[in-house]
Amino acid sequence: MTDEAEALHIRPPEPIVVSVLRARNLRGSKGDNLQCFVKVEFGDRTLGESSKQECIPESPAEFNFSANIMFSFDDPISLDEILQKPVVVTVYEVLTKEKKSKEEKSVILGQCCIDLLPLVQGSVEISRSLQLSGVTESPADTVPFNEPKGEIDIRVAVSEPLFDEFQISEGNMLTISVGSLYSPPESWMITGVNHSYGVALPVPLTADKELPVLFANGKLKSPQEKEGPKKQKRWAVPGTAIGNAVFMPDRFMFSDPVENEDGDFKGKDDLEHRKFSEQERNRVTWNMERRFYLQRSALKNFQDTITKNYYWPVEVIRLPHTSTTKGKKEEESSLAFHGLALINLSSLLYPGVSRVKGAFRVIGFSETVLAEKTKRQGGVVEDAVKFSSTSPHKYSAASTHRKLTKNMDNKDSKKTNQLRSDTALDVDTMTAITAEGQQYTDAKSYIMIEFCLDKPLIPKRTTEALIKRVAELIPPRPLYPKRTDRAQKAVEDYHAQVAIIAEIVLDNFRDMFADELKDSGPQSPDVMEQRRQQFVYELNTTGKYFAIKEQLKHSVVKIVREKYLRTTNFEDKGELQTFLSELYVYLVDQMHVSLSKVLAYEDQPAVPKPLKDSNQLKHFAFEAEINHNFELAETYYKERIARNKADTDSWFDYGTFNLYIGNIPKAEECFKECLSTNPKHLQSLLVYGIVCVISDKNEIAETFFETATCIHCKSVLAWTMLGLFYDAVSNEIGAEMAYAEANRLNDKKILAFTQAMREKEEELQEQKRKEQEKIAGESKREEILMAVDEGGLSVQAVDPKLGNIQKSTPALAKQISPAIRQAPSVSPSTLSRPSGKPGSEEPIQHDLTSVLPSSIFMEAVDWLLQVKAISFTERALGHELLTITGGPKLDFYIAMAKLYILKGDYSEAENNLNEALQLDIKNQDTWALMGHVKFLKGDKPGARDCYERTLSFVNDASETHSLYLRLASIYLHENKYQEAKKIYLMACKKNPSCVTWLGVGTACYRLGELSEAEDALSEANMLNNLDPEVWAYLSLVCLKTNRCHQAEQAYKYAIKLKLEEGPLLAEIHGEQARYGFGNPSF
Question: What is the end-to-end Cα distance of the chain in Å, rounded?
Answer without folding.
Answer: 104
